[in-house]
Each structure stands twice: as C-alpha cells, then as structure tokens.
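Quick one:
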Amino acid sequence: MVVFLLVLFGIVFIFYGFIQRKNFYNQTLNILDHLDNKSLITETMPEAYFIEGEMLKKILRITEKYKLEQINKYKFKEEDFEEFMELWVHEIKTPLSTINLITENNPGKVSDSIKEEIVKINNYVELILFYARSQNLEKDYIIKNTNLKDVINKVMINFKKDFILKNISLDIHGIDYQVKTDSKWLEFISKQIISNSLKYLKENPKISIYAKKNKENIALYFEDNGIGIDKKDLPRIFDKGFTGQNGRSKYNSTGMGLYLVKTLCDKLSHGVTIESEVGKGTIVKITFPLGSMTKEIERKD
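Output:
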C-alpha cells in the first residue's frame, strides 16, 4: 500500500511538473508572439517555479545584456566614424576652394577643365558626407513645411553652368506646393536625380521638373530625354552599389546616388519610383503624403 501511494505520488508529481513546464513555455511563446520588440521577452516572461525555467531566464538575461553591450560598442564606433567624416569633409573643402580660386585667377581652357573636375569632386565629397549622415538620419533632420519651388530653385543654381555649357533645355513649372519634408535632405535627393540626368544625356537634351496634386499625395517629377535605363536593370536600380549596363559601360557610376535617394525617401516617408525606356528617357517621381501634411500655396497675382 505504501509503495502504491509513493508511486501514485510520484506520478502526480511528474504530471504536475509537466503541466507547470508546459504552461510556462506556452505563456512565454504567446507573449513572444505578441511582442513587437522581441528583446523585451526577458522582462515579460512569466514566473518559473522550476529550476530549468529559472536557468532559461538567467541565460536570456545574460545574452540580452551582452547584445546591448555589443550594440552600444557599434553605435560608438558609428558615431566616431561620422564625426571623422564631418571633419574630413570640412578639411578637404579648404584645398578645393584654394584650387578653385587659382583657376578663377588664371582663366583658360585648362582652368575650365579643372573647375569641372572640382565640381565632380565636391559632389562626391557631398555624397560621402550624406551617406555617413544617413546612417543616423533621425539625429540630423527637421520635418517642416517646405516650399518645393524654393528647394528646386536652390538646386538649379548648383547646376547653372552645366545647363549652359551642355545647352540643356530646362522646363520647370507647377511646383508651387508646400510639403512636409526636410529641405536639406530633399535638396540632396534632387541633386542626385539631376546629376544622373546630366550624366546620361543625348542629343538635344531636355530636363523637365514639375509637380502634380493627386487625391493622396503631391508628386514631384524629374523627367529627361536621355539614353534611358535598360528594362532588366530597373528592379535593381535602387540597390546599393548597382550601376547597371549604362553605368558600367561608359559613365563611371558609383551606384550610390540612387541608393541614397531611396534610403532617404524611405526614412522621410516619401515615395520614390522610376520609369524609363531605353532611347526615350527617364522619369523619377517623389511623392509627399497629402491631408494635413501638405497644402498648395496660393499664387499671388
């Protein structure tokens, strides 16, 4: 009889332990499924009244602590790199400005060629700086009402010489809209798009910039009649480092410009799409959400 009771007690104890463990693991999995931030599981796990459960919780806490330490180390290195890039860009602009001043004081074909190369170098320097900043964009942007016309006009000043030297027909119209964005980053995005248009010109070049108000957004268009993009390259056009057939064969493309355009548009909650046809040209569209986000500026007569 005693043996029977001991066996029965053992069976009940084992069954109770099984149910206890099963409930603990089921509750843990259920909590994990409903957590947006899975790393919070160590703070939200149910109490474990058995040694294996407590060991699991302890292991998870140690692992989480180690992970956070590694993330903080990575963040520190990233911030240190960004600070270095900011300093480097500032320092490199000084000799570039000096070279530019020398060419201004010594006009001629050679000086003109040097100026063109300086512009290219400045554009690449800016690309490096904005790439470094894009890794922590939340620290470096201010979303506010921004006039598209003001941004585009500022960008056009940067390319004034290119339009004149390359005899480009420029058509800018219908951009009197105010949108929610960061003007500095939108300016950079616009520069990258126009730089691509200038890089892939053909005879009788034309660039059009215009905007349209739709039901859900305001769309800003950059349209050119350049050489266009091969259809097979379009799905990868925003990939980091992707140059496509045109970029590889003739134009020394870095494959970073459009990658940054897409990255920044995503972080700013702007849409961006590209339509293109070989031999006919390319249209880049950036969309800004409507509603309380944007409003059209009334024209003053």
